Structure formats: C-alpha cells, structure tokens
Recover the amino acids of this structure.
C-alpha cells in the first residue's frame, strides 16, 4: 500500500478518535504542532479532516526540511484553508492540542527547538493528544531523554509499542487504530485483553463437587506473617477452588482455625523431612502455592525443595523464590519434574537471575523470556507492565491494574488466583496470564470505590466476583466493533 494512502488513513483516524473523545472541546479550537517528518504529515492530514468539519484548526510547523509526503499533505491542507501559526510566535487560545512532532523512529534527546515546542504545548494546560506516542518517549524502549510530553491520549497505528506500556504516565490513554498496513511486528507486545481472558474462563459442570474444582495447598504463614497466607487462601477460593489447605506452623494454624473457617489446615514446621501427613496431602492436591509469608529462616531451601518434589503443579512466590537465590541448577532440575510457575517482582527476579536482571527495567520481555528458557518454567514477572513468559512461546503482556496494587499482600492474592486456575486445568501460561489480568481488573473495579490510594488486597479479592460476571457477559455478548479502533487501553487510576 502506498505510503501516502497510509498517511491519509492515519491522519483521518486521529481526527476521528479526537472527535469521538473530545466533542465538547472541538469548538474551542485545536492547535496541532507538526514535525518535518511523516508523523508531521499525519498531523497535517488530521488538521485538514477537522477543518472540513468547520472546527477551528491551527497548525504550528517545527523547523526543518519537510519530507516529500509531509510537504504534499501540508500543501493539501493549506489549499483547503487550514490556518498556520508560527511555531515560536503567538498561539491562539485553543481547548485541545495535538502533538505530531516525532514518530516511532525518534531516538535520543530532543533537539532544543523541539523540546521548546513540547514545553509550549504543555503550557497550554489543555488535553494533549499524541500521534503515535508522546514526543520525547522512545517508543521502542520507553526511555525518556530529558523532557517528554505528558499526553492525555495517544493514538497509534497497528499495535502497541513497548514504549507505550513502559511509559504509561506519559502515554495516557492509548487507542490503537487500523490504517491498513501489514500485520504488526512480532516484536511488538501481545496484550492479554478482557476478550481473551473471558475465553479462558471455564464453566463448572452442574455435577461439579469440591474435589473436581481443584484442591489447593498453600504453604506459608510463618510467625507474624499469617496474613499473607490468609490472602492467598482467600484468593484461591475467590477464583473457584473447591478445597484449600493451609500448611503452616502451630501458632499460625491456631489463628487460622478461628479466623478462616473455610480453610482446611495442616500443622507443619518449615523443615525437612516432610511428615507422612503432609506427603499424603500434597499427593492429593492439584496445585501447591509456596511462599506467601514463608519467611527466610534456616532450612527453607530443603523444605521447599521437598514440597516441590512431592507436587504436580507449583506456584512459587515471595520467600519461596528467595529460597533459591544462587540455586538455579536445583530449580531447573525441579522444573523438569512438575509444572512450575514463578511469580517474581523485580527484586526477586534480580536475586534469582542476576545475569539477566540488567535489562529488566527497559526490556522485561527479553529478560522474562530468557529466564523462562533457562529454567524450563513459566515466569510471571510482576511490574508495569507484567510479563508472562513460557519456553517456546511469545511472551504475553498484562497491562491491567493500578498503583493501588503497590501494597503488601497483592502478590499473595495473585499467587492464590494463579494456583486456583492452574488446579482447574489451565496451562501454566494461561493460568498466569489470566490470573494477572483478573487481579488487575479487580483492582481497577475496587479502586472506583476505594480509590487507588485507599486500595487494600482484601478489596481486590472482594471485587473478583464482579470480574467473573463481567467476563461472562463479555463472552456471551461481544461488544460491537468500532472500526478503525482495534484496542483501547485506559490510563490506570492514580489517585
């Protein structure tokens, strides 16, 4: 397809999204700052499309020799009567701004002239829409070299770039539109969506019983950390488990018996060898969650190793992961005998995989995939975004959730959901991706009631039923398509 055709489709798609999202602001005027490249050409097309709707539009062109297509689209816009203003001169009063300065190929620090335009756009104090992505953000890496525009909305083409997901504050809401170019680059992230999640959630048959819905064993809850175990167990129930056993020392079990009547309990110190009763319990289980509140006392490695050797499927979290710092060969050996999911946050990842951690912040996809291949296990690397990596498969990105999840206990909730879904028959990759999406969506729903600032892990668990109901509705009635929009990703609630 000719590049000019794509540019026309891109600019008109931007105009359509802007008109749909900000109808009340259009009459107050729109200022579009355009660069000299093809991103600026998209801006000229958008200006022409809005002008034809009798919307006051002003274009400010940054200095530089325009690309041939940019010049052509600028000529078309000027012939139609689109007004221009000097980039460094007075700007009219407007109620909306569009950033079409730099596109996906931009790298490195902004030139002073472009940085000055970004600052002027910011000073407008109106909603700002970025074409492709905010100027100043490297969409390949999410890196910002100095100043970057904070967009209220980014309109991008064909698929999400990594930079959109790593620079969430700067990218704002993200709308992906189809403009007719070939399939997206395989290196672009594959996003776990609610539609995909809904397709993964199975139904319980009418003849289901507690044994058929999954038997979960949660190992953790050292003295003073019983709350972590309780959260994981409650989350397991909220995700559909039929039976949940808690394995913990005597003082924790005494508290659980009074506080958690839904739970089965088994008293065991975190030491090997395992008792006959625990061996039998693990043998009957479908999935085992190890780590919530486990602590780092002596003998943890031997105990956790013994539990994994006796288990079919394991979710390894928190101090269950920390027990294997410096013991990757042993962990790799264990992964050959059971289905293993690791759920590290960045600090735990660094302790487990120090040789791979250097690229984690800028490229969690590569780091997670390399670690998964190294171990032969599924990794759910928690962060913004979270990444699920499984050997031989493309990584999956999870972008649901909000800063309210940055609290102690959120990881315990995630491990409980993951273990429950794993026990219900999902593959490790599907269980991890679905669990992370469910956690994030529950946090988003709960934050509407509590705010992100006031969100607690128990609020997230309480919102899980609303997630399942919503996904069942989505499975039954798929939303009507709205071409050219392919995907919309809201900026998380941050207050």
């Amino acid at each position: 397809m000719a590049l000019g055709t794509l540019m026309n489709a891109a600019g008109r798609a931007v105009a359509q999204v802007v008109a749909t999202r900000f109808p009340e602001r259009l009459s107050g005027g729109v200022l579009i700052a355009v660069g000299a490249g093809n991103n600026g050409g998209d801006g000229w097309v958008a200006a022409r499309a809005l002008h034809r709707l009798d919307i006051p539009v002003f274009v400010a062109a940054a200095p530089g020799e325009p690309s041939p297509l940019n010049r052509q689209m600028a000529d078309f816009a000027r012939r139609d009567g689109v007004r221009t203003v000097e980039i460094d001169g007075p700007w009219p009063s407007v109620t909306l701004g569009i950033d079409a300065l730099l596109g996906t190929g931009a790298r490195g620090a902004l030139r002073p002239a472009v940085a000055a335009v970004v600052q002027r756009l910011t000073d407008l104090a109106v909603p700002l829409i970025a074409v492709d992505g905010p100027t100043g953000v490297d969409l390949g890496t999410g890196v910002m070299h100095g100043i970057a525009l904070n967009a209220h909305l980014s309109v991008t083409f064909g698929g999400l770039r990594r930079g959109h997901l790593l620079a969430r504050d700067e990218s704002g809401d993200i709308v992906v539109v189809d403009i007719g170019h070939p399939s997206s680059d395989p290196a672009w992230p594959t996003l776990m969506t609610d539609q995909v999640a809904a397709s993964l959630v199975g139904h319980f048959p009418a003849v289901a019983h507690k044994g058929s819905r999954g038997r979960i064993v949660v190992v953790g809850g050292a003295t003073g950390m019983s709350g972590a175990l309780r959260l994981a167990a409650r989350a397991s129930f909220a995700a559909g488990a039929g039976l949940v056993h808690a394995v913990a020392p005597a003082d924790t079990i005494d508290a659980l018996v009074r506080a958690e009547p839904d739970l089965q309990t088994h008293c065991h110190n975190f030491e090997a060898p395992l008792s006959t009763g625990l061996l039998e319990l693990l043998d009957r289980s479908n999935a085992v969650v190890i780590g919530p509140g486990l602590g780092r006392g002596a003998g943890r490695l031997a105990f956790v190793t013994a539990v994994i050797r006796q288990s079919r499927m394991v979710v390894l979290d928190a101090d269950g992961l920390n027990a294997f710092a410096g013991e990757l060969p042993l962990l790799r050996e264990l992964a050959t005998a059971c289905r293993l999911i690791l759920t590290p946050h960045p600090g735990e990842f660094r302790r487990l995989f120090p040789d791979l951690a250097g690229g984690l912040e800028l490229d969690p996809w590569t780091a997670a995939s390399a670690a998964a291949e190294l171990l032969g296990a599924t990794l759910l690397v928690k962060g913004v975004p979270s990444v699920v990596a499984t050997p031989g498969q493309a990584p999956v990105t999870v972008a649901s959730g909000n800063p309210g999840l940055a609290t102690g206990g959120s990881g315990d909730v995630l491990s409980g959901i993951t273990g429950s879904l794993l026990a219900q028959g999902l593959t490790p990759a599907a269980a991890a991706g679905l669990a992370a999406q469910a956690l994030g969506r529950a946090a988003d729903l709960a934050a509407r009631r509590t705010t992100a600032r006031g969100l607690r892990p128990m609020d997230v668990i309480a919102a899980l039923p609303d997630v399942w109901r919503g996904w069942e509705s989505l499975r039954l009635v798929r939303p009507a398509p709205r071409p050219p929009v392919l995907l919309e990703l809201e900026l998380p609630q941050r207050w």
